[in-house]
Amino acid sequence: xxxxxxxxxxKIPINEYLVRMGIKPVYSKGNDLWYxxxxxxxxxxxxxxxxxLNAWYDHGTGEGGSIIDLGIxxxxxxxxxxxxxxxxxxxxxxxxxxxxxxxxxxVEPKIIIKDVSPIHNFALKSYLRERxxxxxxxxxxxxxxxxxxxxxxxxxxxxxxxxxxxxLRNRWFKGSSSPKDITFLDNGSKSVFLFEGFIxxxxxxxxxxxxxxxxxxxxxxxxxxxxxxxDVLRSHQDVFLFLNNDxxxxxxxxxxxxxxxxxIYSGEFYKEFKDINEYLQATSENQxxxxx
Length: 292
Prior knowledge:
alpha+beta, 5-stranded antiparallel sheet, 11 helices, globular
């Protein structure tokens, strides 16, 4: 499969790119589509996409740019990794005419769950290995989910949320089925570990130092859902924060504190990395080199 160049990727309409991830505009005005920011938690739309310029701007943070800049922020990846993802995503018909979905003309995300089963697909097992997550760990909390987009069938690692939807991940796709929600795993503890995404949650389980700790787990599945976690977090004595080392993660910690939740920063061990999974991958690579 040919990898897209930056110039080719920039021809993909940003609004169609967002629609494929289940992110829809709240309203439109001329060439501008206004969203609740996918990069942070907010109640009033201040994230703008100009369909004529094919550019975005987040008025809350002052960030903006092309689809490349947005993709890097959304996926926390390098340009080369993003281009590989986008190259595979071409199969999801990103080149179709943009779907300008607004409140008075809502179109549901075109992700249809077909089947759910134990993880058995070779490519999905390989994807987990690449992320440093064992099949044994993933099988405890995830399923293999068959889904369709635009009458084309795909498979992904599926992580269920509390409302019956799934976070979907494979080597080239990052999305979710409706309804999107947080995931709370109650182990009867007064302590809770908070994560942004389920890959980081699975990663902490792979790190032996944390395997014996008794705690509940709450996975946001998107920092935009932080507000839904507040009541659950307040019911615990201790809240341990395993958020990403980026602006969104820092803002999430600030918002929690403003909500009266004084979380305990627990990211010292991966402070040189973007997130726990990146740390896990680096650790696994070093161990593999040492065993050669």
